[in-house]
Every structure is written in structure tokens, then in C-alpha cells.
Write a structure and sequence with these properties.
This protein is α/β, with parallel strands linked by helices. It is 36% helix and 19% strand.
Length: 274
């Protein structure tokens, strides 16, 4: 993979100049979420964060990752049902629709509102340089086998697929399991808040799962990385002051990233065989 050239200064400047106003955020002091900045760096590691490349983001909601990529010159297609999550508030659907319209009209982003698990991707064969899917897979209620076949079809030979999910066996969850506590989503979230539609985590994978999915679909695993963005908001430490939680999370992020299998967030990059 190429050496990362994209950095926070570049990302934040592009975010403020071309994207922030669409969301109603500050165009002077606003900064891009560190997790989204990292996602852009992952794309850059593949050499795909280049003007003219075609990036398809699956399940992005209204996250600013795709818009910043578009502002950097990439052709960007966002595919989602936009029915909740990822910055889409079901109770503020009208506002979400306004943002979506601005992303399309002001930035030229292609938005496809569809259930990509059930419907073939309306994209030509070998027309995409990189497909990204960040923290969406764990929400899927049905087998993604057909979707990954579609991804394989639309990605050009030598192109990339980047997956990011929560880690089903991160350090906190291993400790919780030893203490007899459930490591999965809360019972209340599934039982009460999920009535009538549950959009929480259905099945969280481990690193080996993501590797296997890539290999089943003709992609070679070229990078596996761990981070702890979710860990920064861990309910396990909610009894401590928020400042202490941030300090612990920051320190843990630097220590644990050397051991991806213990991190809260796992990221795998695959390259389609030529």
C-alpha cells in the first residue's frame, strides 16, 4: 500500500471550506470527527484518495466522510436506505432530506436510497475503485452473500474493499464475559427500543470473520488495523468523570492498536485479485 499523505490539516481545511456549511456546522473552527479522518486515511493508504477515483460508501447515513472525499475530487456514490442511524434521525426526516439534497446539488454526490442487501447495485461492472463500509455490517439482519457478490462485480480488478466494524471480542467484552455480563447490545435496546424496528447490532464479527468474507469474494487481505473510537464512549467506565474516561480511552487507543484483536474497532482492507 502507499504511504499516507492525507493528514488532519488537509482534511479539516477541506471540511470547513466545502462541507461544514451543508450540515449547519461552523466553517471557521469546525473539525472533522477523528474517526472519519481515519477512514479517509485508510482510503489514502490504498492510493484511492485521488481526484477522479470512484468511491462507493455503503450504509453511510449522513456522515461527512463521503462529502469530504467528494470535495477532494473523488466521484462519490452513497448507498443507504436512510431510514435511521448514521446521523439520520427518523423524527427529523425533513432535515435529513434537505442535507441529502444539498450533498447532491452542491457537491455532486450520487445518492442511492435503497436496501442494498436485497437489491442489486445499480452500477456497471468494474466501475468502482474502492468500496467502503464503516460500521454498517453489524446491523444487517440478512445474509450479505448477494451484496458481496455485487461488490465483487462492481469493483475493478486491483480495486479495494474497506470494512470497519465493532470487534465482538475486544478487551472490554472479554472482561465482561468473565464477569458474567453480556458483551452484546443492551436488552432494553433490543426489547423496548427495537419495537417495531430494531436497528441495533445483530451480529458483530471478529477479525477472522472479516478476513474470511474478503477471501470468499476474491479479495486478498492487505491490511488489518485496530482502533478504539467506540471505546472512548464505553459504558463500562460511565461511573468515572468524562475527562477521566477520555484520558483512559486515549491511552488505551495507543497501547491497544498494536493488538487489533483487542481493540473496540477493527478495520480490514482487501484488494481484488487481478
Amino acid at each position: 500500500m502507499s504511504t499516507t499523505k492525507f493528514n488532519a490539516d488537509i482534511g479539516n481545511q477541506v471540511f470547513r471550506d466545502k462541507v461544514a456549511a451543508i450540515y449547519g456546522w461552523s466553517t471557521k473552527t469546525g473539525t472533522l470527527d477523528p474517526r472519519l479522518m481515519y477512514y479517509l486515511q485508510l482510503v489514502d493508504q490504498t492510493g484511492s484518495l485521488t481526484a477522479g477515483k470512484h468511491l462507493v460508501d455503503l450504509g453511510p447515513g449522513l456522515a461527512a466522510f463521503g462529502p469530504v472525499a467528494r470535495a477532494l475530487g473523488l466521484e462519490v456514490t452513497l448507498i443507504d436506505d436512510f431510514a435511521g442511524g448514521g446521523g439520520v434521525d427518523r423524527e427529523q426526516r425533513e432535515k435529513a432530506m434537505q442535507i441529502m439534497a444539498a450533498l447532491r446539488d452542491q457537491l455532486g454526490i450520487q445518492l442511492l436510497e435503497m436496501d442494498f442487501l436485497q437489491t442489486p447495485l445499480p452500477l456497471a461492472d468494474a466501475s468502482v475503485d474502492v468500496v467502503t463500509c464503516f460500521h454498517s455490517l453489524e446491523h444487517w439482519h440478512h445474509s450479505p452473500k448477494r451484496l458481496f457478490a455485487e461488490i465483487t462485480r462492481v469493483v475493478r480488478p486491483g480495486g479495494f474493499l474497506i470494512l470497519a466494524t465493532p470487534n465482538a471480542v475486544n478487551l472490554r467484552k472479554r472482561i465482561f464475559a468473565l464477569l458474567g455480563k453480556s458483551p452484546v447490545s443492551s436488552l432494553k435496546g433490543w426489547y423496548h427500543d427495537g419495537d417495531p424496528v430494531y436497528r441495533g447490532h445483530v451480529r458483530e464479527p471478529v477479525i477472522r470473520d472479516l478476513h474470511q468474507i474478503l477471501q470468499w469474494n476474491g479479495f486478498d487481505v492487505i491490511s488489518t488495523q485496530g482502533r478504539n473510537y467506540i471505546g472512548g464512549y464505553s459504558i463500562a467506565l460511565r461511573f468515572l468523570p468524562s475527562k477521566c474516561v477520555r484520558l483512559i480511552a486515549t491511552g488505551a487507543n495507543y497501547l491497544l492498536r498494536a493488538f487489533p484483536s483487542l481493540c473496540s474497532d477493527i478495520h480490514v482492507i482487501g484488494q481484488k485479485r487481478r
